[in-house]
Design a protein that fits this description.
mainly alpha, Rna Polymerase Sigma Factor, Chain: A, 72% helix, Arc Repressor Mutant, subunit A
Length: 193
């Protein structure tokens, strides 16, 4: 079975690897990287076509994973969660998503981003595939939304981005993100009423 991040449900194995990484086990880190980097790179590429930024974000993500694995292990031991679903993969994706937004902000500050480098989703995201398995009415209502409204919902609801982060990710003003989110909620409410 595949979870919402596109990773096989071996989250227990990945959590064990993270606990070992927290104890500075380089072999565990190598194995965790081998297991998680392909799907992480794929998800990042769906949101940004610039291979340089994707490579930078991957590197920054795994440096952070190496340094902060103890915080994930500590959160899991205490029964808390810091990631969607509380999984190791969710925790890693959260780090990567934040790093992607940071990289896009940095690029926007240093130069005007050419249109061909704006974040785009070139292939259906795992979230879109997952949404197909939920209730038929909701799936139909989501599919009937305009693409720009679905894109905002995916970023804010599924990926957990803030309005500001969604604005940077999609390359639209924050007010546009807010109005699209409101329009999407209203359209879903009407379709499901």
């Amino acid at each position: 079975m595949v979870d919402h991040l596109g990773v096989g449900r071996s989250s227990d194995d990945e959590e064990r690897l993270l606990r070992r990484v927290a104890r500075a086990d380089l072999d565990a880190f190598d194995e965790l990287y081998r297991r998680t980097s392909p799907w992480l790179a794929m998800r990042l590429r769906r949101r940004c076509r610039d291979d340089g930024i994707v490579a930078e974000v991957l590197q920054d993500t795994y440096v952070t994973v190496w340094r902060a694995a103890g915080s994930f292990a500590g959160i899991r031991r205490s029964g808390g969660t810091d990631a969607p679903g509380g999984s190791a993969a969710g925790w890693i994706w959260t780090i990567a998503a934040r790093r992607l937004v940071d990289a896009l902000r940095k690029r926007a500050r240093t130069q005007e981003v050419p249109a061909e480098h704006l974040p785009v989703r070139s292939v259906p995201a795992a979230e879109d595939e997952a949404l197909g398995s939920i209730g038929l009415e909701l799936a139909t209502a989501l599919n009937d939304l305009a693409p720009e409204l679905r894109e905002v919902l995916a970023a804010m609801v599924l990926d957990g981005f803030t309005v500001r982060e969604t604005s940077v990710l999609l390359g639209v003003p924050e007010g546009t993100v807010k109005s699209r989110a409101r329009r999407a909620r209203n359209a879903l409410r009407e379709a499901l009423a």
